[in-house]
């Protein structure tokens, strides 16, 4: 059971939402359904749907609503529809057939038009959590997913932050904010899922500089 819990994005999101300091950094998240998707599109204009289990950007789809047009983007392919019903029917054929969740879309800071997010990896070494890496992942041109296995480019977090956030001192400040948030999340995850020994946190920073937690991986690559 523990392995299945570790793999379930919804359970990990629920654990993080239980902490008031962390909850404000988590995009609105709901289990996938037609009504939930419609409501979130009307509220946010853009959402991302992703399988409850799995990684590497597999099955992740961006869905948008703007000026009466419904669209979704899977990898580099985008399709548009004049009605929600037509879009939803097509979307269900494009999904990979697993249980999904819907996450509020975040308009990320970019470098040369390409969105960037960050992976922070920590491991437990002799009872103490230590940082192993903090890197930026720059999406391949034309894609919205940043996964390296989908052609993303890895940068140091310092370089990614420095190139995507242009006000002085922002990179150093955001790196420290990310570490502080990671330290809080480690405690939450460890108490919710005893026995974990490694964690990978996927963070995004929006155009206004706010840090968002997209996902926590218990078997980070």
From TrEMBL:
GO terms for biological process: SOS response. InterPro entries: ATP_grasp_subdomain_1, YheC/D. Keywords: Ligase. GO terms for cellular component: cytoplasm. It holds the Pfam family ATPgrasp_YheCD. One of its GO terms (molecular function) is ATP binding. This is Glutathione synthase/RimK-type ligase-like ATP-grasp enzyme. It comes from Fontibacillus solani. The lineage of its organism: Bacteria, Bacillati, Bacillota, Bacilli, Bacillales.
